[in-house]
Amino acid sequence: MDFYTELKNVKNLFVIGDVHGCYLEFESLVNRILKEKDPVIISVGDTVDRGDYNLKTLELCFEMKEAGFFYEVQSNHNLKLYRWFSGKKVNVSRGLEKTVREIMNLPVEERFELRQRYMEYYQSLPLYILVNGSVVVAHAGIKDEMIGKTDKKVRDFVIYGQTTGRYTPEGFPERVDWTKDRMVDENSPKIVYGHVVFPEPYINNRCYGIDTGCVLGNRLTAYNPFTDEFIFEKARRVYFSFD
Length: 243
Fold this sequence. Notes:
- The protein is an alpha/beta fold.
- The chain has helices at residues 23-33, 54-67, 76-85, 96-104, 108-123, 152-160, and strands at residues 5-7, 12-16, 39-43, 70-72, 128-131, 135-138, 163-167, 173-175, 190-197, 202-204, 207-211, 219-224, 229-234.
- The protein is built from 6 helices and 13 strands.
């Protein structure tokens, strides 16, 4: 499973931030993107957990990937679901319990079919995606010296990021801002990532954080790194809170 993917000759790219089971917003944003010419969509991952429509979100991902215009990278929440399906001991909390509840409400045969389909799907996902040699999409980000590598250090960074061990007042792990020390020039690739929630897209040293907390009631974000444009879809409501 530890590999990365290179896409070449992509004409129109849209990277979507963490969906977290916000199917209504996800579907609406995708439909807006599909009106564009030759769209390629990449998800930064964390498509499940915390929201109310995790299985519908997965089904849409499956369908779009099969259609050939959609890609997704590995991420911590989707990895946790993969581990749960694998029978590993995981802590069913901080959002996974909502996904598990949906799964357990399925008839046994449908549950088994979903497990098989999801396991195959997640195993097919790269750690990160390099597009046209000029854009890198990774769930929690990636450092320049890691591009082209897939060892454990790289895997842990792109899936989990860096933390201080402390928590913010909002309940999030306190993150290390790995973008602030990045040395860039006009030839440095753009890095587009999610994982860390920002009220607005966070732009620093050609790095673009696009998890804008849709599941927390803010909005879902898509970013086109070729045109440097954002598309936003307002959250229908608050689906999850750390209170």
